[in-house]
Amino acid sequence: MTLIAVMITAVVCNFLGCELKDDPVYQERLAKGEVKLRGSQVFQLKPHAKRSVLLFLIGIVAVMFYATAISDTVGLIQNPVLPRNEAIVVFMLTIATLISITCKIDTSEVLNASTFKSGMSACVCVLGVAWLGDTFVKAHISDIQAVAGDLLHNYPWLLAVVLFFAATLLYSQAATTKALMPAALLLGVSPLTAIASFAAVSALFVLPTYPTLLAAVEMDDTGSTRIGKYVFNHAFLIPGVIAITLCVILGFIIGGIVL
After folding, report:
1. Which of 12, 37, 85, 160 counts the most CB atoms within 10 A of its CB?
2. Where do the TM regions start and end (predicted)?
3. What's the pLDDT score for residue 112?
4. pTM score, two decimals?
């Protein structure tokens, strides 16, 4: 049902927005020389490029192995020194160091790379807006759970709506599920409703403060992916709402047939 919803959303998105030739923001950036047109060119493989890709893949495999080894299910490593998130940072920084040393790259060029600049801009956004939002939500998590619980007690069918707005504030599918799904089941919400409504926990895009969303805005040098002056009128809202709505509806339809 998720795949069907995503495919339908992709078709709908083809009719949203305007072409770059009609986008005033893009045309303004193009006139200022802030957008570089990429034409066809012969690709030249740089020395040690294959080695760097191999090292990067080794880093990914190492992260996956370590995360699996310290998981509660496998438990190969008891009482790990590094938690998963910190281990990812250590592994990838180590691989980056090895690539810099063994592949003989010019590290000064890293600072000028568009991906690096976009990533650092996104980091600043995360430490600012996203951190502020997370602080506010954590300070009022009990109130959020209480209001959601009362609403579900009176209207169990509103579970998808409750999960949608809770995920908007909690910035996490796991945190939203952990905070509200057990309470919903205790209040008598049917398994079909719980399963069909689960897709609503993906509403992390409503407030334009999620790290991935901010990174996407920063990486788009055309300026067509942007956050409007009214905050909520950003490029991700309509596609995201359409995808979640379709997924929930399809969940009820398919779940009603299967369950």
Report:
1. 160
2. 53-75, 87-103, 115-133, 153-171, 183-210, 230-258
3. 79
4. 0.64
